[in-house]
Every structure is written in structure tokens, then in C-alpha cells.
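On clarity, I found the account of how folds are encoded harder to follow than it need be. Since the whole study asks how a given chain folds, the encoding of that fold should be made plain. For the editor and my fellow referees, an illustration may be useful. An entry of this sort, consisting of the sequence and the corresponding C-alpha cells, reads as follows:

:::
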Amino acid sequence: MRRILSLSLVAVGTLVVVLACSREGRADAGSGTKVAAEQLWRELPAATPAAAAAPVASLAPLIKQLKPAVVNIATTTVTKGHPRVPGYSRNGPQGGPQGGPNGLEEFFERFYGGQREMPDFKSNSLGSGFIINKDGYILTNNHVVGDATEIKVKLSDGREFMAKVVGKDPPTDVALIRLEKAPHDLPTVALGDSDALEQGDFVLALGNPFGLAGSASFGMVSAKARSLQNGPFDDFIQTDAAINPGNSGGPLFNMKGEVVGINTAIVSPQIGQGIGFAVPISLAKQLLPQLEKGGKISRGFLGVTVGDLTPELARGFGLADGMKGAVVQDVVGKGPAAKAGVKAGDVVTAVNGKPVEDRGQLTRSIASIPPGGKASLSILRKGKKTEVVVTVGTRPDEDSLARGDSADGEEGAGEAAAPTKGAKLGVRLQPVPADLAQKMKLDPGSGVLVSEVVPDGAAARAGIQRGDVILEVAQDAVSRPEQVTAAVARAAPGDVVLLRVRRGSQATYIPVKIQEPEAAPEKK
């Protein structure tokens, strides 16, 4: 059985991504070699330029060297049965031929007991993994072993061992298991630096697709930093090296024989071929110290809502074309960012000197910093550069972050502002009624309510909706309808007006391009 995810791509539409198994805070890892005794894994010494440039006539020696440390993982998952309710069959209250008041189920319940246990449901699956040290620690995917009640590991030489989960991290789909009664002669692999990978680099995948042990496939890095829309930590390596069900958890190697990724998912063969995804090993290396301890993964947290700096937003903020960064849409009151002085409208361009190109990169950079650590944010605030140092907090679990209340968009009583001549948003505005302000937890006298949106107007095209509350125009706070209309009136057709809008419990910046005025009908 396969687990299936949806992947939306702008140019491709909707793709189906299958986790490559046969069943259904990122800090800089660094490229230097570390002392083996100080960490759970090992790394190779830096290669000399001559060795790095040596041509490769065949992959056979490399595969022969690496394959012994790649393992087959067979898991069994048992779902416990549940008590049966008298008179209720497996097929529902009416149950078909075996249910209902006159069915066989009722017969057996009447004469052989009123309540019986459903049998346990047992499922099996296959995946891959790789040994990272002599103590029997193995890296794999969480979806391979996460819910397993029994884990059996088979080495390439045929030896088999039982294993236990040491630690797992569902958001990144990484898990660490350990062999029970591990021997002292285990082969291991070295972990590399996936941050150093470039598009076009050759890679080698080893694993057990469809139970075919020790299979190898060769390809290249098709792309980096891919998102499968699974969550904020998506940062996958895309490769055309063949990855199939059963490869999940297996290693993706560079040509030096270092693990650079954990094979995780593929695009459904019904849709496309040669599109596989791997978790970057640098991300896994950040998690390993916490996974080894077996506790919950702690990640850094700023306490902000962020968005990508799109070209339209950059224009609205008055920034140069091509500027990259993450826009702070909202700041959580009394959160780490608020205490440090981060403000809505700030554009974060770097964290601890490392450039930030989008919101995902900002989230991952902060998540990699241990709670209590320092994050130096390089910020553009109204076009001026500034540095803000934040003591990061502890990131709540993803379910808590996903929860939020939404407002109904009630507007209450009030007079609509008269339309302003010249450039228009295409909305009617009014003061925010007191009851709505209280419900949305707005500061008294802040914001202007959008009571009506003209279809196909500038605001409608930008996504403004009836019930939205405009908090700022061009980064200036507004509290009266005439402030909004006056600010917009100063914009020429074709200009971008930056609005900060509150919708429900979330505030976000929306760039609105002012339209050319409609030509007056020609008099004849």
C-alpha cells in the first residue's frame, strides 16, 4: 500500500507524489571534518583537487564500497481490534447479508456472546536505510518505521537483526533506529554536506526497490529546495536517479561516496517518470543529536507570520527589482520577535549572515537555532537597513500553529465613505464597528472596514474581500476611511499601493495595482 501526497506546481498543475516505500532547524552543517568521537556519524576528510577531478570510468568500485552499509528494513504494524457492539455488524447498522436484525452477525452474538473483539489488523512494509556508526545506528524515513510494532533489518551479507526506534521527526520524515545486539564489525557510510550540492551534480541511489535488495541507480541533482507542500520544513533535493517503492529511507550518494540525501518520495509513475525527492542530509545531521536522545525535536521560533517578497510587494515597499527576502506580515504579541522590536512590514534578508530568499528559508533557518539561542536578523525597514538580535523561543507543534479563528466579516452599522475621484481601489469603506473590533481584538480606533468590493476593480483583482479590515496604506496606519481614499488618490494609474489587511486572525500585506481610468465615451 502506498501513501500519496498532492504536489501543486505552477507550470505543471497537480502532481501525485508517492512516498517511495512499498506500503501504504536548519543550522549550517559545515564542510569541515569533525572529530568522530564528538558526534554520532563520521565524515570524510576533504578531498585534494587532483582526487576531486579524477575521471570515473565505472561506478562499480564505488557501489562495491558503499553497498554493505545499505540495509533492507521490513516492518510489521499491528492495529489492535476494537470491541464489537451487539446488533451492529462490520458493514454498518443494516450490514447487508451479514448484518441487520436477521443477519448471521446477530445470530452469533445472540448464541455465542453479546460482545466480541475484532481481530487485530496486521500490515507489512519494506523500506531501506543506512548504517551511520559501529553501534548499529541507522538513518531512514519516519514513514518507514514510525508506527511499526516490529522492525527487522537485513544486511547485504544476509545477517538479520531486530531494531528499535530511537527517535523520529514526522515534519521532516527522518527517523533513527538502532540494531539490537549489534555486532562489532558493522560497515558504515560517511555523511556529506548537501548544502554544497549543485544542480547537475551526479548522484547514486542505493536501496531495495520492490524488495530487490542492493539495487543501484544513477542520475543527477535535478533541482534543490523543492517543496512538496507537506509543511514549512520542505527542502527536498530533486533527482532523476530511479527511486521506486522500497527505496524510502535509502541513501543518495555523491561521487565521493558521501551520503547527501535520504530518498523519500517520487512522483506517481502514472503522471511522470524520473522525478524523485530526497531529504537533505545536512538537515538530518542537525536533527541527529536530538534524535539520539529520543525526545521531541525542539526548534527555534520567532513568533511572526511571514510571506514571500514577491515582485509586486517589493515594488509596494519601494525596494529594488530582484530583491529577495521574507516579509513580516504580523508579529505575535509578547513573542520573541516582538520583544526584540521586529515590526510588521520588516523585510528579513539574512539570518546570522546567511541570505534569506523566501519565507521557507527563514522558517528553516530559525528552526535550526536551539531555543534560547540568538538570531541576528538583517532587516529592511521602510527601505533602511537595520540589524535586530532575537532570542528565539520554542516552536509550538504544527497542529497548534495551524489552528486559528476566522472572522465572519460582519460590518455592523455605519455610513459608507464617498468615492474619491482619481485613482480608486474599487471599494466602499467605513469605520470598524465597536463590536467587530472587539471580536477581532483590534486596538480601539484602528483600521477601516471594507464594506463592499466592486467586481473586477483594483482591490478585487488583488484579492481584497468584503469584511477585510485595512490596517495600513503604504506602511502608514489608518483609522478613518478618508485616510485610505486620500492615500490612494495620490497614486497614479499603474502604481502599486501597499495595503496591510486583517482577515480573521491573520494580517497580511497585499499589493494593489491601480488601474488605468476607463476612457470616457466619445461624443458624436
